[in-house]
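Appendix B. Worked example

We walk through a single record from start to finish. Start with the input: the chain for Aconitate hydratase, Commensalibacter papalotli, length 894.
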Amino acid sequence: MKLIGQDSLKTLRTLDVDGKTYHYFSLPEAEKHIGSVKHLPNTLKVLLENILRFENGKAFTVENAKSVVEWLKNHRSDSEVPFRPARILMQDFTGVPAVVDLAAMREGMIHLKGDPQKVNPLIPVNLVIDHSVMVDYSASSTALTQNITLEFKRNAERYAFLRWGQEAFKDFSVVPPDTGICHQVNLEHIAKVVWHNEEDGKTYAYPDTLYGTDSHTTMINGLGVLGWGVGGIEAEAAMLGQPITMLIPDVIGFKLTGKLAAGVTATDLVLKVTEMLRKKGVVGKFVEFFGPALDHLPLYTRATIANMAPEYGATCGFFPVDQQALDYLRLTGRDEHQIKLVEAYLKAQGMFRDNNSVDPEFTDTLELDIGTVVPSISGPSRPQDRIDLSSATKVFEKALTDTFNVPDQDKSYPVANADYELEHGSVVIAAITSCTNTSNAEVMMAAGLLAKKAHALGLTRKPWVKTSLAPGSKVATNYLENAGLIEPLNALGFNIVGYGCTTCIGNSGPLEDDIIDTIENNKMVATAVLSGNRNFEGRISPNVRANYLASPPLVIAYAILGTLRKDITKDPIGVSKDGKEIYLKDIWPSAKEISDAMASSITQKEFLKGYDGVEKGPKEWQALSVATGSQTYSWNEKSTYVRNPPYFDGMGQEAPAKRPDIKGARVLAILADNVTTDHISPAGSIRKDSPAGRYLTENGVGEGDFNSYGSRRGNHEVMMRGTFANIRIRNEMVPGVEGGYSKHYPDGKEGAIYDVAMQYMQENTPLIVFGGKEYGMGSSRDWAAKGTNLLGVKAVVAESFERIHRSNLVGMGVLPLLFEEGTTRKTLNLRGDEQIDILGVETLQPRQKMIMRIHRADGSSQDVSLVCRVDTQEEVEYYRHGGILPYVLRLMAE
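Next comes the structure step. The output line below is what the pipeline stores for this chain.
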């Protein structure tokens, strides 16, 4: 793919860095033709540079560039602009289906009599295997080795497939298991801030930008790299050279002032920021941070805030590059010439933050004195539901009544074969997990120091608490070892269990059988406390109903306390070995203790050691048997992990001229507000009595080898059966029932959603799903759209959509439709026995109005106006072709 376009505005200039010449497209030169860009937000400057670099009079035009500058007139815009990132980042749960799709596209290319080698990444792709390790073993010196062994046993077929992809596709590299979490590896090792590439004998410099197939790709915004999560579908199109067209977003400025108070962590800060931005309403918008607090806000704290952008709903949470960023690049072992290039390039473009910088202009702003932030946790099921730590017990007890409907709140229950009882609020999982916090050296060091003090006093975790520590990279292990903190962490049960996401994505592993029996038999509200970024209902563990996000030191403190029913700020946290009551303040490390430990333990050496030989992987990875040398994959029809998907079955060279209106559709599900992609396509465990469990059993897989939905995303047969199969999803068509159930009409027979959908498919009946507010919030999970498509759903009608899922639905040829203000599934009194027509599909245009005609069981009908959220002309084309992948495949085959 050519890097540069025709440069109609003649903005190409050169930059000398240590005697090496770089060519770049100058924003100051562009000002002479399209107007001042000085006050543009940095994120929009990145979009503008992207247009200047690729400008070709077709997909990228001078008019696109002008529209970015014209944004300053009203600080918002209705204009569309194209964007093409420098690279793609993937994790293995989303990466495996993406590579499956690429392999299937090669087969499809042969069917269309094209060249399969054209199906090849045209920009660099980094896939980091981080989502598959599970906490089967914990709180022992052998936990890490045991979990890795089991991980490879379960996933050898998937890993061999990824090894094949690494050999088969160009510009596709894999970071093996047991290395770290993709976002932390990206932050500490992969990202360059300013990328460069060779073309026609010249070296071109440009901003490092990326799409990631995980919503927390936004973490890299903390380093001044613009990137955000997209579905695997969009990522595949981007890696194959397709620009993604987007509306120029609103940009919200978030001013940070002051300094954090003693005892307040970066986690507390990010929970406050999340609460404020979610209340502000920033879905689909960019957020840029500015203000005097950035002068002393460490890079890893910025990364923690940026990581949580999906939780506050923004497309990205961006921090400009300044001296803090350069210091971090140097600390992490980046090449000195690269660091000089970053500084020189960004200063030349007016994108470097220093004393001479002017604050950008924004669509709107809000402000936080970070000195007012207090210790917090968030839960029981949404990251934005922040609670002052001092109020945690009262708020939880209120939730027992209001949320969980618990009658005998103070009753405790004995555990078989144990000398303790559990109560509502007992902490049964305490996990230091997730790149959000394990990339933050300050909170990790605080956790280690708290463990050291607690261990010295003789404190231990409660015996019912499953504890784990899963660093996001080996760097964290290195500096904790240097500080002498591994041993006290181990003593409290926080042994390292793996280098991956673990509990944060639901890979918490099983609790003890007797504890599960006690919880389930008595319908208890057990709790988990984790340093993650997601705590959605049903996500962390099937046996835990209340989940709380907290800083790593608080995770350890709650493991010692063992319950949410005691006030951790006032009540004794435990009793020392000499019988003295110990309080949280007695073991909480001071700011000086933390900074001293960091200064003596964290150097460039730890980062260089952590990533030395990163591509080799553990011995199990090196020992995988991989078939190489083939341009197409040899599909194993008996495989339960990797199957050739049906997306291109029967596809012709030409797309239909138009898609027909949807007539006579039945309702598959009616869902409430805040339905997440995890509700739609769970990543966790597979139940034996579920459609997916029955499929695996019928194919000779024992229950102990089911693995997770996330690990089986390369098999559409499993994933179709897992769509809408979360154990906590509630279909209002089947009141009082949890899990993926529906009703078939007109007979009214109840069954699993998959079984009902297949019956409708045999009857050639299209399907509709109804939802509430923020439908599809959460992870950028492309299978939530793929599975919806494969079940025969033609449209989803909701009050609002989360950004990534809306895009993914379009990318899979499913219409996202929006109720107009004041209309909801409830005002329409939808029951699920209706038949639905969607009129206006044949004349589809971006964001057009459509009519939904409801035919009720009593013979009456009603017309309702909807807004079609196919937002751009390019998306209209995707939809006409049946999705983005058929669209791209047809283009490549021409």
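Two observations about the output. The first strand starts at residue 12 and ends at 17. The CA atoms of residues 142 and 482 lie 21 Å apart.
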